[in-house]
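Structure first, sequence second, as always.
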């Protein structure tokens, strides 16, 4: 079977669905190809800062999603080894969403048939004769696309095709979960971060009855053979936690997720890497996967979606399928211009964010004092960037 489409998106995660919805809001259709058989809502929860909420407003989903999650009003940081505690107001909007709520809200606003589940792309190539990219699925189907957007996550095949290089990873384990409190939890609207020398725990309330938590610890060099041993290894650290925190994690809901590698694209790849080739580009983690220190990966993926849809709709307002009114060559050029504009707008923003995240991660993991010192200087030079990152406005659709 060979289908011809205008815009094809590989990956039906947050970024792929948001891009399809942003295009839809601009009157442009697209096709999302997702290898999973159903909507992927694993990953438990996601902290969404003001920049993410601005993007969700443009997508028309902010009101509905705000009803599912309370505002977080304070950051409560505890460093037990240093006997230090800080309490600061969040200032800008921050809420912790259930990933399921976000992904379902994105998907349900797309026209039926936009997402093709169970559609695993094995490879693709650009065919200059047909002015399109030809994609092949693992089961042998072929799909032709005028524009190809890779929203296929950290280990993206589209990023590889563009020559972006593989992302790196931090040897850290992260356990993510929820704890439900039928009669309400006692944690108010605070985001607690408890950081010891070799582990950290975070707790974010979603609403009055549900809290999200994460625990992280460096991986041992031997690695793990399965998820349950990795989980038990992280949970060993509960012994060193105050009772209130340990109790919350112990009574967790059955469903948890363990991340065994934390991927990131180094800042020099984001600064210099090729994000476009012809009418092929990338967005979301495929473009700029970052370690979750600032909780910005999902929100920046939403920003990508807005900027990409805006650029494409301005350059090709009638859509990108050839309708006889524009020659193939002309349309190709319009698409290339739109993608170049998208990348020009996104690169400086993503570079600063990935640089700060990289410096922060290196500071936490480096053994060399010199490396640590360089990171401290870099973070000081960047100033209070993380706050500004969270306040970024990607503009109107
Ligand atoms: C522990 C942890 C905590 C985090 N916390 C936060 C947070 O609090 N706030 C925040 O904003 N971000 C957070 N992030 C980051 C955030 O989760 C990601 O940035 C975001 O989910 C990226 O979405 P995406 O759509 O780009 O990629 P993904 O969610 O990885 O989606 C990629 C999709 O592509 C599909 N796919 C891949 N290859 C193919 C193929 N060949 N054919 C078809 N389909 C394919 C996959 O099945 C998948 O559905 C966190 C990340 C981690 C690891």
């Amino acid at each position: 079977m060979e289908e011809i489409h205008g815009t094809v998106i590989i990956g039906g995660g947050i970024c792929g669905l948001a891009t399809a919805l942003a295009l839809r809001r601009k009157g442009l259709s697209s096709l999302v190809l997702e290898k999973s058989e159903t909507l992927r809502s694993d990953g438990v929860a996601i902290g969404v800062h003001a920049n993410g909420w601005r993007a969700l407003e443009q997508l028309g989903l902010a009101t509905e999603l705000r009803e599912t999650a309370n505002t977080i009003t304070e950051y409560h940081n505890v460093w037990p080894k240093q006997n230090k505690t800080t309490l600061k107001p969040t200032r800008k909007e921050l809420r912790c969403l259930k990933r399921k709520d976000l992904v379902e809200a994105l998907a349900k606003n797309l026209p039926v048939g936009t997402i093709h589940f169970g559609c695993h792309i094995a490879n693709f190539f650009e065919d200059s004769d047909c002015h399109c990219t030809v994609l092949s699925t693992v089961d042998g189907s072929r799909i032709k696309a005028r524009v190809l957007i890779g929203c296929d996550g950290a280990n993206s095949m589209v990023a590889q095709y563009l020559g972006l290089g593989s992302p790196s990873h931090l040897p850290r384990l992260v356990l993510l979960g929820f704890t439900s409190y039928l009669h309400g939890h006692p944690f108010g609207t605070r985001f607690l971060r408890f950081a010891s020398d070799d582990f950290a725990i975070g707790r974010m309330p979603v609403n009055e009855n549900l809290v999200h938590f994460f625990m992280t610890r460096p991986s041992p060099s031997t690695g793990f053979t399965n998820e349950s041993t990795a989980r038990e290894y992280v949970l060993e650290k509960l012994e060193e936690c105050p009772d209130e925190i340990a109790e919350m994690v112990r009574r967790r809901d059955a469903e948890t997720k363990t991340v065994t590698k934390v991927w990131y694209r180094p800042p020099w790849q984001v600064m210099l890497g090729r994000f476009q080739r012809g009418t092929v580009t990338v967005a979301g983690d495929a473009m700029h996967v970052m370690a979750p220190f600032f909780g910005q990966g999902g929100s920046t993926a939403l920003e990508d979606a807005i900027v990409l849809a805006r650029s494409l709709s301005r350059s090709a307002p009638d859509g990108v399928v050839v309708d006889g009114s524009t020659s193939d060559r002309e349309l190709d050029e319009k698409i290339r211009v739109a993608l170049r504009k998208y990348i020009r707008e996104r690169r400086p923003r993503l570079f600063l964010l990935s640089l700060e995240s990289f410096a922060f991660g290196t500071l936490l993991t480096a053994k060399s004092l010199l490396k640590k010192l360089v990171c401290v200087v870099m973070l000081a030079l960047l100033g209070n960037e993380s706050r500004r990152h969270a306040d970024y406005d990607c503009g109107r659709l």
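Margin note: The chain has two domains: 2-169+263-390, 172-260.
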